[in-house]
Amino acid sequence: MTTAPLFTTAEGFAVLAGRHGPTWGGGPPPFPMIGVAVLCLLLLLLLAAAVFAATRRGGRPPWAHRPPEAPEDGARRVLAERFARGDIGVDEFLERASVLNWTPGAGPGTGKGRGR
To answer: What is the C-alpha to C-alpha distance for residues 110 and 95, in angstroms, rounded to an integer?
Structure first.
C-alpha cells in the first residue's frame, strides 16, 4: 500500500487549510499594510530621484532641451576648430579672436580674461 504525502493532493490542501486557519485572528491579514508602506517608500524614492536628476542638470528637468548656443560661443568654437585643423595660422587666429573679444585659453563668457 502506497501512501502519498497529504500536502501533495488537492484533498490534502483542503484538509490542511481547514486545520490551519489564519494566524491573525480572523481579521484582514497585515500584508496589505506592508504593501502600502513599501509602495509609499518606492514613490518617495522615485520623487527624490527626479529631484536629484533635475538639480544635476542645472535646474532643468531631464526631458528639457538645452538652451540654444549663443552665436559668440559658436563662432569661438568654429574658430578654434579651424585653427586646430590647420586651416588658419596663428596670426589670423589671434586677429579673429580679438574681433570676437575673446582671449584664447580664457573660459567661455569671460571676455578678455577678466573676472566674471
So the answer is: 18
